[in-house]
């Protein structure tokens, strides 16, 4: 077969890991942790001292999940597009003296490709 192997989707966790590798998110994570540690260690009576650091870490989680979700949706959209193009992209060939339409992946050595001006663009 002339078909290329389909690329496997990256897992959602891998996409999350890739998203959290962003420099700004790494810095926000460090600052959130440092903020929590400073507030907890510097305050004697700590009831809500960790809220700012927790808010920073929560925002990092939200940005990470949204970014990974968008990337995962892109993978699915690209896969559907490739599938749609592959199913609609037929070539007219002469095989064993008979004309037939075949997918690009089904063209074999010995096929005579019939080309006209309308299908040159595909």
Keywords:
single chain, 122 residues, mainly alpha, three-stranded antiparallel sheet, 3 helices, 55% helix
What does this structure look like?
The protein is mainly alpha-helical and 122 residues long. It is 55% helix and 11% strand. The protein has three helices and three strands; from the N terminus they run H-H-H-E-E-E. It has a three-stranded antiparallel sheet. Strand 1 and strand 2 form a beta hairpin. The longest helix has 38 residues. The two termini are 20 Å apart. 4% of the residues are buried. The mean pLDDT is 87.
Q: Strand order within the widest sheet? A: 2-1-3
Strand elements, count:
3
Can you tell me the overall shape? rod-shaped
Query: Helical percent range?
Result: 40-55%
Order of helix and strand elements from N to C terminus = HHHEEE
Structural class: mainly alpha
Average pLDDT, rounded to a whole number, is 87
Low-confidence stretches: none
Q: Major sheet, described briefly? A: 3 strands, antiparallel
């Amino acid at each position: 077969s002339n078909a290329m192997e389909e690329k496997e989707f990256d897992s959602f966790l891998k996409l999350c890991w890739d998203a959290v590798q962003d420099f700004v998110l790494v810095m926000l994570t460090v600052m959130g942790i440092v903020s929590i540690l400073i507030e907890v260690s510097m305050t004697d009576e700590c009831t809500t001292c960790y809220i700012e650091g927790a808010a920073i870490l929560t925002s990092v989680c939200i940005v990470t999940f949204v970014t990974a979700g968008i990337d995962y949706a892109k993978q699915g959209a690209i896969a559907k597009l490739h599938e749609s193009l592959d199913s609609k992209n037929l070539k007219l060939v002469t095989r064993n003296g008979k004309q037939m339409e075949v997918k690009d992946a089904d063209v074999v050595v010995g096929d005579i490709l019939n080309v006209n001006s309308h299908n040159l663009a595909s």
